[in-house]
Write a structure and sequence with these properties.
Strand content of chain A: 15-25%
Number of domains of chain A: 3
Strand order of the largest sheet of chain A: 2-1-5-6-7-13
CATH architecture of the largest domain in chain A: 3-Layer(aba) Sandwich
Number of strands of chain A: 14
CATH class of the largest domain in chain A: Alpha Beta
Number of helices of chain A: 12
Structural class of chain A: alpha/beta
CATH superfamily of the largest domain in chain A: Response regulator
Oligomer: homodimer
Helix content of chain A: 25-40%
CATH topology of the largest domain in chain A: Rossmann fold
Chain lengths: 349, 349
DNA sequence: CTGAAAGCGCTTACAG
DNA sequence: CTGAAAGCGCTTACAG
């Protein structure tokens, strides 16, 4: 026999008032209920240990202090990586501050190892006041749907939708990458290459854009290479073939293997080749060097995303600025220095 | 203006039936509704894109597929340690399997950095079908309360309540510690000491009990030392003073510093002193040795705890065995070998 | 086989 | 200031 949960009706009986009055004490302005009645109700609540049933609240008014957290993959993966953790550190801390609980949608349907945001999963979202979305394998179609007639949500990480205005809190990769490019320029580099997957993902696009914009502003020629399917040796070959003195790595996790390959070919980092990573990899690099690059403010992104979501829920107006772009801190490191002196000033004629 | 969603009433209107009939088509056995009617309803559902409102379902059914997860500290701590992670890996995987969502009680009141399970936090628990409890700073009084009139719950880790029968899924430290003791005995050790905090926590008590039982069974004298407040050097002093050839460490995280102190005093592990750790520390030891000891099945504990909880929720009977003790796998390692030969056979007279 | 009705536990106009 | 009532969108006995 499940211990029957205390309801407003029980409290009302104890306090000798109507159920509606209990609700008013709980929800309305203090002066909606007379002080004496109010007192009795409050006491009854204390004694009974009453707590509002959020499901009923939800149905009646549509809010329940529950924030949904939807991730496209398990929040707690078996393997080594732990992609979501830094974001969730920020999210949890902010949730504590806001006084909301977090509902992890672990019941979502899984297709090809990725959780889907459609069907029952999608319907389940409406349980919460609003929802945080995290992951790198989102389906833009699903998002468009959600935007159209779903509960409020905020994506952690910049996401763009062709026709829509998707709320997000992202990191300013464009600017951060530009900062790194300018660091190279200040050191006197002229031939600075960009290596990354030529992918449509915003986080990668933004880095590429940042590179292009900064290079163009400096009137330097760009050299972009697709990292996909290339071995470290092949990449070093590209560096040499294009006489690059600097290399930006969008794929920061490959930094160390590329440096090794360069070393094997007699190219020392940073003496002969300056390198920088555009963001820290999930799994810290096993490296003897302090890599130059920038730090992604993941915890802050999580916290701000939740803060923005709460704002959206509370105002429910289109007025609020729905996008936030947080700055990345540049890390000086030691892998970028002046380029080697040109062997033949004026070119290699 | 939130886009109005299609309800059963809408579907009923389209199909020319009652709202209840729509519900029956959706939920009851196929033959509760005549094939023709059923067909019309199904068509209307298809056309309208109807999806049941899970909030309303929850309210009507009295269950909501939400499992609460209460941790005494943040699930995602800032610092290095990550105590809860392995448990939550198991919990999340099991939740996927069971089709339930996880509600993290991040709104709980915090006192001295620990979340409390009383007041509003306590009340909030009842919104879930049942709740998983994790942490090492539980208040037994709060637990007793919960047991009395709270929702079903299961503690991850063995917990005992003087008067109550608290459901848990734990690791069998008694047996695992006994296994380690027997490993020492098989190697010929006779003077085996136990070092740990003499604390009331079950996990520590169990290790001590396991040690005592196994030693008594072998008719060996026990030597127990409180690690609290003792420096590594002082501990080594105890080892020497008591002529121990073997040492069990309940506080596995101190293993390496004690080994160093022993080495500094000329005691090599395992040549002069065999050591074993009773469970892996949260943060992996920075050590050149493979430590002998046992592995705590944390993921499995999480998964089983959730499975047990669901069972309790579904059966709602006292019949179910409410306790599960999982075996710990012994790790052979290389820190336990035969004790050094006695200098004077027959004693040191 | 199907509909009308009550109920899940709340919120919120609406009367007094 | 307070109560009676309607309603949120479902499920589920209970009558026909």
């Amino acid at each position: 026999m499940p211990p029957a949960r205390v309801t407003q009706a029980d409290v009302a009986r104890m306090a000798g008032v109507s159920q509606a009055t209990v609700s008013l004490v709980l929800n309305a302005e203090p002066d909606r209920v007379g002080p004496a009645t109010r007192q009795r109700v409050l006491e009854a609540i204390g004694e009974s240990g009453y707590a509002a049933n959020p499901v009923a609240q939800s149905l009646a008014r549509g809010r329940n202090s529950m924030i949904g957290v939807f991730t496209y993959e398990p929040v707690f993966p078996h393997g080594g990586g732990d992609f979501y953790r830094p974001f969730l550190i920020g999210i949890e801390a902010e949730a504590e501050r806001q006084g909301s609980d977090l509902l992890l949608f672990t019941s979502a349907e899984v297709v090809d190892g990725k959780r889907r945001l459609s069907g029952r999963s999608r319907a389940r979202l409406v349980i919460t006041d609003g929802c945080l979305l995290l992951g790198r394998t989102e389906d833009k179609g699903e998002l468009a749907h959600l935007l159209e007639d779903g509960p409020p949500f905020v994506f952690v990480g910049r996401r763009r939708l062709p026709g829509g205005d998707l709320p997000y809190v992202g990191a300013d990769y464009i600017r951060a990458t530009g900062d790194v490019v300018r660091l190279f320029l200040e050191h006197g580099h002229e031939r600075i290459g960009f290596l990354g997957e030529m992918d449509a993902r915003e986080s990668l696009r933004d880095r590429l854009d940042g590179y292009r914009v900064a290079m163009r502003a400096a009137e330097m020629p760009t050299s972009e290479f697709d990292a996909a399917g290339r071995t470290p040796d092949e990449i070093v070959e590209l560096v040499v073939g294009n006489r690059l003195t600097g290399l930006l790595l969008a794929e920061s996790h490959r930094a160390e293997e590329i440096r090794s390959a360069a070393a094997a070919r007699g190219l020392d980092v940073p003496r002969d080749l300056s390198m920088a990573v555009l963001g820290q990899p999930e799994i810290p690099l096993d490296t003897p060097l302090a890599w130059t690059g920038f730090r992604i403010p993941r915890e802050e992104m999580g916290a701000q995303a939740l803060a923005l979501l709460v704002e959206l829920i509370e105002t429910r107006t289109k007025q609020t600025e729905r996008h936030r772009l947080l700055p990345c801190l540049i890390e000086a490191g030691e892998t970028v220095t002046a380029p080697p002196a040109r062997s033949a000033p004026g070119g290699d004629t």
